[in-house]
Amino acid sequence: MIKVDNFEQAFHKKVILKNINFEIQEGEIVGLLGPSGSGKTTLIKALIGLRKSTGGEVSVLGERQPSLKQMKQIGYMAQADALYEELTAKANLAYFGRLYGLKGKRLHERIDTCLRFVNLDQEAKKPVHAYSGGMKRRLSLAIALIHRPKLIFLDEPTVGIDPALKRVFWDEFEHLRNEGMTFLISTHVMDEAERCDRILLIRNGTLIDGGTPKELIQQYGSIEQAFLKVGE
User: Which of 26, 27, 53, 102 could be disulfide-bonded to 97 (CB atoms 3.0-4.6 Å)?
Assistant: First the structure.
């Protein structure tokens, strides 16, 4: 699903990411774990085609990035919510669903399903400007899932979400993974990292380690210790 070979990203001659190499297979939940400023968001933007690499190659769903050919099979939730705040949640989902080619009965079914999933079905007719920050995050996740993509990138998706709803989200992520959907999720939350199939540890723009949660716990003693290690 994803193949990254000797990836490098620089801005104005300053190298942000270097020597990045990894692969992600279909039906995996892979966590991207590292301190703030380590390059996680820059890497995700390169993977979805918003950044052109300054070195190496990035291939997503068989297409070298940047490319728009696979966009209808990719979902993306950014750290910053990109919503039309004068519209309702339902209208936002309808707009983005149509951009992905959904229409008619299928569009309405996906809107209802995604609103229920993020627990916004009772708030669907409120304008988004009346939403709390957490509600906006939930709507952003619903939009990322509206077209049921093969591959989804989630950049700190549960910030501002209450613990009970986080568990619901992760249960659904695992359900979708079991149906073949692939996830790359950046997170600082240790219990979320432990629910990933694999974790990639990134520090100062370099991928310094990786493995299953069990492997990292054996090596470092805990996921938290692994996180602290990459923050040194």
Answer: 102
